[in-house]
Design goal:
This protein is of the alpha/beta class. Helices cover 50% and strands 15% of the residues. Helix 6 (138-166) links the parallel strand 4 and strand 5.
Length: 287
């Protein structure tokens, strides 16, 4: 049967069946395989052994991405790698400390060598601490800034050459609602997270014309192991945290933050760069 007869007979069959042609075409589209957002993409994640990073690693893999991720806790990292593979995804854990240049360079190179390229980087590793400025030790100050700022700088330093070679890509940095508005006792933490805004904005201008978008995810209160440690896993403190969220009156899940990260890292928002997405359940809307 030639192409014209095939098309004519196909259209006639739809009409005989009593289906509008548009419905018949829609049915064919519905049966077509759905292309996942990160199919064939290579993603690097720092700080993915728990919390938002873990949720993101699982979500990227579910969306077809090949995920290379790091963290310092090897046992937890291997568990996340196992979870990714159990759900039918592709991922590898590589132990690395974001504050160490040699470890970060090696981590990035190993992921690229394994999967052949780099498309997306989600630089999520971070720490949190609170205390009045004059009571913070120099060691504490340097620890929080080394992890939250130096660690992101090192990750980007070694990721960008691969993104340039790839002809573009996306970088997402995890900051915090403290980069927008903060609370007493957060001098070290808030200053480290606000530094990421300047880093992202400058890098977005430096690399935008090379096809690289760079944005910041600023989470509100999120139910992660880090949050639970900071509250002493106190039910009362968790309830107090919920009350602070003026809009939704609940704290976020790690999976909700991961979805926001995937949005920024995807091609769903090709004109967004050099900005911060505040995902706080309406907390910053209140006075």
């Amino acid at each position: 049967m030639d192409r014209r007869n095939f098309v004519t007979k196909g259209l006639s069959a739809a009409a005989v069946a009593g289906l509008p042609l548009s419905v018949s075409a829609q049915a064919a589209n519905d049966n077509a395989p759905v292309k996942r957002r990160f199919e064939g993409k290579v993603i690097i994640i720092t700080g993915a052994t728990s919390g938002i990073g873990k949720a993101a690693a699982l979500a990227f893999a579910q969306e077809g991405g090949m995920v290379g991720f790091c963290g310092r806790r090897e046992e937890l990292g291997k568990e996340v790698e196992k979870e990714i593979k159990q759900q039918g995804g592709e991922g590898i854990y590589i132990k690395a400390d974001v504050t160490q240049p040699e470890e970060m360079a090696s981590f990035v190179d190993k992921v690229v060598k394994r999967y052949g390229k780099l498309d997306v980087a989600f630089n999520n590793a971070g720490e949190v601490m609170f205390g009045k400025l004059h009571e913070i030790t120099l060691e504490q100050w340097e620890w929080i800034h080394n992890t939250n700022v130096r660690g992101v700088f090192l990750a980007m330093k070694y990721q960008l050459p691969h993104l340039l070679k790839n002809g573009g890509g996306n970088i997402v940095l995890t900051a915090s609602m403290h980069s927008v508005s903060t609370r007493p006792g957060a001098a070290a933490y808030a200053s480290s997270k606000r530094a990421l805004l300047g880093l992202a904005q400058t890098a977005a201008m430096d690399y935008g014309q090379e096809g690289i978008r760079i944005n910041v995810l600023s989470p509100g209160i999120t139910d992660t192991p880090m949050f639970r440690r900071s509250t002493g896993d106190s039910k009362e403190k968790v309830e107090n945290a919920k009350a602070l969220v003026d809009g939704l009156k609940r704290i976020a899940t790690a999976e909700e933050m991961a979805e926001a990260a995937l949005f920024l890292a995807s091609n769903d928002c090709p004109y967004i760069t050099g900005t911060s997405l505040l995902v706080d359940g309406g907390m910053m809307s209140g006075l």
